[in-house]
Amino acid sequence: MATALKSFLNSPVGPKTTHFWGPVANWGFVIAGLVDMNKPPEMISGNMTAAMCVYSVLFMRFAWMVQPRNYLLLACHASNESVQLYQLSRWARAQGYLEKKESEAQQ
Amino acid sequence: MAATKLQAFWNHPAGPKTIHFWAPTFKWGISIANIADFAKPPEKISYPQQVAVACTGLIWSRYSLVITPRNLNLFSVNVAMAGTGLYQLSRKIRQDYFSDEKDAAPQLEA
Question: Model-level pTM greater than 0.80?
Answer without folding.
Answer: no
